[in-house]
Write a structure and sequence with these properties.
Elements lengths: L1 H42 L12 H4 L3 E8 L4 E7 L3 E12 L4 E10 L10 E10 L23 H8 L5 E8 L19 H34 L1
Parallel strand pairs: 4-6
Antiparallel strand pairs: 1-3, 1-5, 2-3, 3-4, 5-6
Protein name: SURF1-like protein
Family: Belongs to the SURF1 family.
Organism: Sedimentitalea xiamensis
């Protein structure tokens, strides 16, 4: 009886802990979905003028409309687009009407179009300010000399193009540059694995409960066989 009682307590405790972890992940899922909804609403809001004082924490995802001039010189960030393949993000210097030079992420070009000339000069850009975190532990260092970038390191790109550390990701250029496919800001790249974690914890709880029931049944069967 003591062994059966121990198995029962051990099993129920384990199930309780695993169910609790699963429930916590469900709560985290609701929290993350609310954040993503807020970000999506902010991204899609009506564009405003570029703020006089730009704050990365306050102005992340801020939709803006900027008129100015795309200057010569661009950086190429290696990227892959689904159903298209490998290519590059084109990062160009944008001199705004008030004399500030910022970074402009114009969008995607295929690898074969990397060296093609692209329109510069007067432009109006509608897009979102962003400070992306592309770098992971396995991301190579940027080849600045060869102009092949593996991450959008804002400070490093700003130094290379003599601009402010501000990145505007284009949603639309007027006039348009037909050779560049805009890659607007969205929430697709923001991790939200809480549902998978919840399913994993609940599955483990179910397995734990099944194993507990099995060991209880086997222990009871042994006790009964000894009694006979």
């Amino acid at each position: 009886m003591r062994s059966i009682l121990f198995l029962l307590i051990f099993g129920l405790t384990g199930v309780g802990i695993l169910v609790g972890l699963g429930t916590w992940q469900v709560q985290r899922l609701s929290w993350k979905q609310a954040i993503l909804a807020e970000i999506e609403t902010r991204i899609a809001a009506d564009p405003v003028s570029l703020p006089a004082g730009i704050d990365p924490a306050r102005d992340k995802y801020l939709p803006v409309r900027v008129s100015g001039e795309i200057e010569p010189g661009e950086l190429h960030v290696l990227v892959s687009v689904k159903q298209v393949g490998a290519g590059y993000r084109v990062i160009a210097p944008l001199l705004t009407g008030d004399g500030r030079r910022i970074l402009l992420d114009r969008g995607f070009v295929a690898a074969s179009r990397k060296a093609d000339p692209r329109r510069t000069g007067p432009v109006t850009v509608i897009g979102n300010l962003h400070w992306p975190d592309d770098r992971t532990g396995s991301t190579p260092e940027n080849d600045v000399a060869g102009n092949i970038w593996f991450a959008r390191d804002i400070a490093q790109m700003a130094e290379a193009l003599d601009s402010l550390p501000v990145l505007l990701i284009s949603r639309e250029e007027v006039p348009a540059e037909p050779s560049v496919r805009p890659l607007p800001v969205d929430t697709v790249g923001i991790a939200n694995d809480h549902l998978q974690y919840a399913v994993t914890w609940y599955s483990l709880a179910l397995i734990w409960a099944g194993m507990t029931a099995y060991f209880l049944w086997r222990g009871r069967a042994r006790s009964e066989s000894r009694g006979t």
